[in-house]
């Protein structure tokens, strides 16, 4: 007797359940299409433009961030190290290498929710192109760790998964057609003292 | 059994439709998009400096070395002029429309003498400005605004703590005002 209403209810619950869950997870998983990935670093040079895809438009309307314009800069985000394993704040990492050509760059860590990590203001929670100590060939090594490190130290808090954001300011990378050899620094895991 | 499978199949088709509808319609009704947050500051026609902690509408400086200021504006009543000058290592400006699409962006190296002097105007206002160019706009960059409303973000770089004060002054003295002849 209740077969037909039951089937209708089943169809509706599948439609709304799967529809909403798939939408929310798609918006959480990525900023949209059109990413440029250089090793673990991912950037979306077109996310703020009119020509971007509907996913990117929905994502930016939901996140409500002030995105960088093409002449301002390009933020690269890394959620994994160079071997593809997720970044975990229980471990220590080295960021080794050079950045693509840019007038300036900044580096800081965020939590998994993309909000900047609240580090004790007395600790070096961020680094930039002027304050970083360099090798004679102008490359750098930055130690990312929750415990104090010598040389360049990027302090993080032990909160589980985290992301690194490297913002290149006034960079030709966004409009690059592959003529410039783009090399981003590597992220190498150096150890997990707690694990 | 077959009717249950059919119901699930219908449900999946509905889910796909719903997914597409939500993605396409989301920008119209979130109320959390960047333009709504800028309007929520109730500061039209002036640059509102952002704090390091999320403000009343959740806008904040995300990058620890970049200080930002936002300005919601409308070219409905006339062109809007953006002015800023000062000795900061780097500044950049981006102008977005009400749907948060980028219209124009620039930085200190693409500006005249390193100072910000930009006029946003509708196509008709631009024709008028070019026909009889006012003396004060001789150095200005003029850009066409496809829609009437939008917002601008001005960012200045403070690589070390000693730059905080010049950057604060740079943002405090910047202006975003309707242009009158």
Mean model confidence by pLDDT of chain B: 89
Overall pLDDT of chain A, averaged? Answer: 87
Q: What's the β-strand tally of chain B?
A: 9
Distance between the termini of chain B: 77 Å
For the biggest β-sheet of chain A, the strand order reads 1-2-3-9-5-6
Give me the strand/helix succession of chain B. HHEEEEEEHEEHE
List keywords for this structure.
heterodimer; A: 195 residues; alpha+beta; 4-stranded mixed β-sheet; 10 strands; 19% helix; globular; B: 181 residues
Describe the structure.
The complex is a heterodimer of chains A (195) and B (181). With 195 residues, chain A is α+β, with helices and mostly antiparallel strands. Chain A has two helices and ten strands. Chain A has a six-stranded antiparallel beta sheet, with no helix packed on it. In chain A, strands 8-7-4-10 form a four-stranded mixed beta sheet, with no helix packed on it. Chain A starts with a helix and ends with a strand. In chain B, strands 1-2-8-4-5 form a five-stranded antiparallel beta sheet. A four-stranded mixed beta sheet of chain B has the order 7-6-3-9. Chain B has four helices and nine strands, in the order ααββββββαββαβ. Chain B is an alpha+beta fold and 181 residues long. Chain B is globular and about 80 Å long. Chains A and B meet through α1, α2, β5 and β9 of A and α1, α2, β2, β4 and β5 of B.
């Amino acid at each position: 007797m209740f077969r037909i209403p039951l089937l209708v209810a089943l169809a509706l619950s599948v439609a709304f359940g799967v529809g909403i869950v798939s939408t929310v997870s798609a918006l959480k998983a990525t900023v949209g299409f059109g990413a440029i990935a250089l090793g673990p670093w991912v950037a979306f040079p077109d996310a703020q433009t009119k020509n971007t895809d509907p996913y990117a438009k929905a994502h930016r309307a939901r996140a409500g961030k002030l995105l960088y314009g093409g002449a301002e800069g390009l933020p690269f985000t890394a959620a994994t190290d160079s071997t593809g394993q997720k970044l975990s704040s229980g471990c220590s990492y080295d960021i080794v290498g050079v950045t693509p050509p840019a007038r300036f760059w900044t580096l800081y860590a965020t939590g998994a929710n993309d909000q900047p990590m609240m580090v004790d203001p007395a600790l070096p929670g961020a680094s930039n192109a002027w304050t970083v100590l360099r090798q004679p060939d102008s490359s750098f090594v930055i130690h990312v760790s929750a415990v104090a490190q010598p040389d360049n130290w990027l302090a993080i808090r032990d909160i589980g998964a985290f992301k690194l954001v490297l913002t290149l300011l006034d960079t030709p990378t966004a409009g690059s057609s592959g003529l410039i050899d783009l090399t981003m620094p590597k992220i190498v895991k150096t150890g997990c003292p707690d694990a | 059994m077959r009717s249950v499978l059919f119901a699930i199949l219908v449900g999946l088709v509905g889910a796909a439709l719903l997914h597409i509808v939500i993605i396409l319609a989301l920008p119209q009704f979130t109320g959390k998009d960047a333009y709504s947050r800028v309007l929520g500051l109730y500061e039209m026609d002036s640059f509102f400096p952002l704090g390091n902690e999320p403000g009343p509408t959740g806008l904040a400086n995300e990058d620890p070395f970049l200080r930002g200021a936002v300005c919601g504006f409308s070219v409905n009543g006339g062109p809007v002029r953006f002015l800023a000058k000062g000795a900061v290592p780097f500044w950049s400006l981006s102008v977005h429309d009400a749907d948060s699409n980028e219209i124009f962006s620039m930085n200190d190296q693409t500006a005249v003498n390193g100072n910000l002097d930009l006029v946003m105007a509708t196509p008709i206002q631009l024709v008028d400005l070019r026909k009889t160019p006012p003396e004060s706009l001789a150095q200005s960059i003029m850009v066409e605004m496809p829609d009437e409303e939008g917002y601008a973000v001005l960012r200045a770089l403070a690589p070390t703590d000693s730059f905080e004060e010049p950057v604060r002054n740079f943002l405090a003295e910047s202006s975003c005002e309707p242009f009158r002849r």
